[in-house]
Amino acid sequence: MASTTPTATSYPAWETAFLTQIQAPSNAVTLEALNLWAAAEGGVPSNNPLNASGKGPGATTCIAQCGSSSPIYAYATLDQGVAYNTQFLQRQGNGYPAIISAFQEGTSLSAIWQAINQSGWCHGCGGGKYPGALYAALNGGAVSVYTAAGANSPSAENPGASGVGCSGGGFDILGAHIMTNCQRKALVGGLLVGAGGLVLLVGATLIASNALKGTALKAADPLQRIPGVRRGAEATQAVATAPAEVATPATAPAPAPETTPEDEETKRENRRLAAQLRARQTPRQHTRTPRQTREHMDADRKARTGDNGRYAPF
Predict the structure, then answer these.
(1) CB-based contacts of 171: which residues, under 8 Å, 6+ apart?
(2) Taking 70 as the threshold, does the pLDDT of residue 1 lie above it?
(3) C-beta of residue 103 within 8 angstroms of C-beta of residue 89
């Protein structure tokens, strides 16, 4: 995009005051660029040439974006509006220093347009061609001087001035101006999307956790693995619906067989024989005096041996 030297020669006095306050030269390039930028905004009738958002000294009534964090106000005098516009533009951040530098260079309409277009002043407005009047002049459009005759509201080219776009806005932190309306809206939207994703992740995690817990409980319960075993309410229902069992009458024990005298005699004989057997197997215990014991031993020896003292054969 080649730079173009404007041919218009008559510009409002406020533009010279504006350029002086930002320490930029008032030449054909800077005056035309500022004029076409103001034409895109349409705020001169409200004494707010570039529709800077916020409420500065001398602000009167809100004319756009009312009720938002970046309302646009009209000013009691053009001098007050110009002073607030230059103060707003000199804030750090949002690409505003690049705009100041392009005006201070003051040699190229294209450079000034690019600095404004790529900044956060109204980024993306006018289909990405903002400021449109300056873009048209750079592309062969007719160059005219914007005098704001008959206009009393923000330009339709700048949707930010009507409360739905990106012009102005943001925050001031330690002297630096952070974000524009569009950037703020994009940040809020991103945070909301992230929060929604986090909620979905937590929900999926809880569902998976409950499913795994149920599987673990079934695996730990041995009754669940035994076919035919019912538990809990299932067992209660099974008992309630089971058919009643029919009790069978108890049968009387069979009478003992009658015994005969022969059987009694046999029992007595068996007891006697058993007692004799036990007597033979258990040695008798005798209490003898030493003399009785010696005589018993002599008698026993005589019974088993001859006179020679040898044992007789059995």
Answers:
(1) 177, 178, 179
(2) no
(3) no
Q: Which residue type, as a one-letter code, is found at position 27?
A: N
Q: Tokens for 51? A: 């529709």
Q: How many CA atoms lie within 13 A of 40 on its CB side?
A: 27
Confidence of residue 301 (pLDDT cuts 50, 70, 90): confident
Record the tokens describing residue 53, joined without a space: 């958002």
Residues near 288 by Cβ (< 8 Å), separated by ≥ 6? 296
Measured between alpha carbons, how far is 132 from 37 in angstroms, rounded to an integer? Answer: 8
- Give yes or no for a contact between 183 and 93, defined as CB atoms under 8 angstroms apart: no
Q: Can the peptide bond before residue 283 be classed as cis, meaning omega within 30 degrees of 0?
A: no
What is the rounded distance in angstroms from the CA atom of residue 238 to the CA atom of residue 189?
Answer: 57
Query: With a threshold of 0.90, does the pTM exceed it?
Result: no
DSSP E strand boundaries for the chain: 59-64, 72-75, 171-173, 176-178
pLDDT in tens, 201-211: 998 899 988 88
Q: Which domains does the chain have, with CATH numbers?
A: 13-179 (1.10.530)
DSSP string, 194-219: HHHHHHHHHHHHHHHHHHHHHHHHHH
